[in-house]
Write a structure and sequence with these properties.
Order of helices and strands of chain A: EEEEEEEEEEE
Number of strands of chain B: 11
Strand content of chain A: over 45%
Number of strands of chain A: 11
Shape of chain A: globular
Number of helices of chain B: 0
Oligomer: heterodimer
Radius of gyration of chain A: 13 Å
Strand content of chain B: over 45%
Structural class of chain A: mainly beta
Helix content of chain B: under 10%
Order of helices and strands of chain B: EEEEEEEEEEE
Shape of chain B: globular
């Protein structure tokens, strides 16, 4: 258990609505990441953060934004959800810069 | 562009068998290669990792073999058990401040009793 919680764990929403997913860590790690997991694609990096208010884009960042106002929380926002954003979203933290540990995931269904 | 190619997509073995999962990478800047295990409904969990300065690493029943010249690495599971049935992902990352992982597409392993 890497001390990572994600909320909500499941969400159903409609196309065009905004959605925010929360990742919370209890261990005060500097690096946090958001991934999406889709069949046949493994996990793909959406955005990551290397400190409070310091974020950068990953491989599949279009349509997503992130914010980190506190060390322990990393938020992922879908400004206007689309059906292509139906996925399982995982948050991760990095211990010692190298090893990433993942949260339990959030299943998002966009109708 | 997929930078880490993983095969096979699925694998079925009998209990006690030695499943082998292979990965190949393109980016020569990669210098850290972890393997993750994922059970249904759970997040991926780090299983074992290797750096290119060694050709093999063992942890319990899990072994990574690494071939730097071929840009390939593989996971071997010795004496596989039904409890090893899961999806396995290889990954790679370059040296750098953020350690961005690039994942393979995953292998669904089933170990029959």
């Amino acid at each position: 258990d890497a001390g990572i919680t994600q909320s909500p764990r499941h969400k159903v929403t409609e196309t065009g609505t905004p959605v925010t997913l929360r990742c919370h860590q209890t261990e005060n790690h500097r690096y946090m990441y958001w991934y999406r997991q889709d069949p046949g694609h493994g996990l793909r990096l959406i955005h990551y953060s290397y400190g409070v208010k310091d974020t950068d884009k990953g491989e599949v960042s279009d349509g997503y934004s992130v914010s980190r106002s506190k060390t322990e929380d990393f938020l992922l926002t879908l400004e206007s959800a689309t059906s292509s954003q139906t996925s399982v979203y995982f948050c991760a933290i990095a211990r010692g810069l190298e090893t990433q540990y993942f949260g339990p995931g959030t299943r998002l269904l966009v109708l | 562009q997929q930078q880490v190619k993983q095969s096979p997509q699925s694998l079925i073995v009998q209990k006690g068998g030695i499943p082998i999962i292979n990965c190949a990478y393109e980016n020569t800047a990669f210098d850290y290669f972890p393997w993750y295990q994922q059970f249904p409904g759970k997040g991926p969990a780090l299983l074992i990792a290797i750096r290119p300065d060694v050709s093999e690493k063992k942890e319990g029943r899990f072994t990574i073999s690494f071939n730097k010249s071929a840009k390939q690495f593989s996971l071997h599971i010795m004496d596989s058990q039904p409890g090893d049935s899961a999806t396995y992902f290889c990954a790679a990352s370059p040296e750098g401040s953020a350690r961005q992982l690039t994942f393979g597409s995953g292998t669904q392993l089933t170990v029959l009793p």
